[in-house]
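hey so u asked for the seq, here:
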Amino acid sequence: MPGSPKRARPAPTPTPKPARETQVILERLYGQHPNATTELDFTTPFELLVATILSAQSSDVRVNQVTPAFFKRYPDPQRLAAATAAELEPQIVATGFFRQKSKMLLGMAQALLERHGGQVPADMDALTALPGVGRKTANVVLGHALGVPGLPVDRHVLRVANRIGIAQAATPEEVETQLCAALPREQWTLASSTLILHGRRICRPTQPLCPECAVVDQCRFAAEMRTAAAAAARPKAAAPVRAARPPHTQPPAGKAAGARRDALAPGGRKPTGRR
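ran it, structure tokens below
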């Protein structure tokens, strides 16, 4: 319609960097974090499955403090399935959400016995069908304990991949899909571990250590920060100077004095209006 305001065009949705550039970026990060792997301690696929379940909303350091005694008492699904929640909870309380986690561990162990003969299956669908096991946990176990390439996406991978620009998505599943499409299958697990370490050590949620990042020159987030800093450093334009208002016209000194004399009554008082 004539005269109607024009609508602003929406900003284009950013797309992930090309696959070749993503591979180059990861190669540089591999050099900054050599031999990256999970920081959870384990010796069997079952132990890693337990440790990964316990690591939800906790730290690997805290989990590693709890699991040695736990694995000694429950070394396999048979022993764990025979336990009770009341027995498990005091042993894992330090990892947080211990009531929910105890139920998950018991359900997982019982499902392994009933469906897989006590063995941890090397299959994504079978793993995610276990109580307490999501796609991230399944990818951790597949990639680190069972030799099946997997790309776990935790909060660090989600943040770092989006900041650098090698992924542009809001959900872990979308980021996993984009990274897997850009990287050789044999690099999936290593890429995830590397991005996790980079997120913990360098690309922190707050106050990231950009000057120490090996790919700062290729990072979209760093480029945006440089642009913002440059804009803030530019001197602001001076405000326009308004012209001074002309002073009020004053009556001539002689007329002003006469007017004052006329306004005064005899005796120096103002006239009252009565005679």
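The mean pLDDT is 89. The chain has 13 helices and no strands.
lmk if thats what u needed
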